[in-house]
Structures are given as structure tokens and as C-alpha cells.
Amino acid sequence: MRKALKWTTRELAARLGVREEIVSPWEHDREPIGPGSKKLLHLMAVELPAENAPAVELNRRRILVDMQINPATPGRHVPLRLKSVRLKRNRKQERAYAIA
């Protein structure tokens, strides 16, 4: 995916907030990419214009649905409240959710 996005190893590492030497084992299947880094990479790729990554096929909804947010303190529940809002996109009104 890094090559499809035309990023160097250094750029990918910086965007994911990891050290450059962490990326190589992922690319050579010596170690799996961590779930947080993988999801962040997929979300970044989705947000880029399609012409920058024509070979990358991603489903934004699937990435977000599968995402898990774990609290820093195990057993502590952090409430996430959403509210329904109206958005105007492409001259059409749509319903969406925002953090309350």
C-alpha cells in the first residue's frame, strides 16, 4: 500500500508515528502490522484522492465499523455520545452523526 500511495518508508513511518525500522518487517511479512497502525493507514489511504492510489480498494465504512477504541485504563468505560446532524453535501441534505 505504501508504494501505491507513493510514500517512502520514512514518510509512512512519520505519518503513522512509528520508527522507520518498524516498517520494513511489515513490508516483508516478518511481523504483522499492529491493528492501530493498519487502521490508520487504511483511513489515510481512503482520504487521499483516488488518482494517488488507483490500485488501493478500501471500504471506509468497513474500516470504521471494525475499529476498536480501547481505554488507557482497562475496565474503565469512556462514554461516546453522538448526535444526529444535517449535512449539505453536493447540494443535498444528508443526515450524519457528530460527537455530542
Structural summary, described in words:
This protein is α+β, with helices and mostly antiparallel strands. The protein has one domain (1-70). It is built from 4 helices and 2 strands. The protein has helices at 9-16, 20-27, 35-47, 60-66, and strands spanning 82-89, 92-99. The chain has a two-stranded antiparallel ribbon. A hairpin with a 2-residue loop joins strand 1 and strand 2. Helix 1 (9-16) packs across helix 2.
Strand order of the largest sheet: 1-2
The topology string of helices and strands comes to HHHHEE
Distance between the termini: 34 Å
Radius of gyration: 17 Å
Poorly predicted tracts of residues: none
Total beta strands: 2
Helical coverage, percent range: 25-40%
Structural class, judged by helices and strands?
alpha+beta
Instruction: Tell me about the largest β-sheet.
Output: 2 strands, antiparallel
Task: Report the sheet-strand fraction.
Answer: 15-25%
Q: Could you tell me the mean pLDDT?
A: 75
Oligomer: single chain
Sum up the overall morphology in one term.
extended
- The number of helical segments is 4
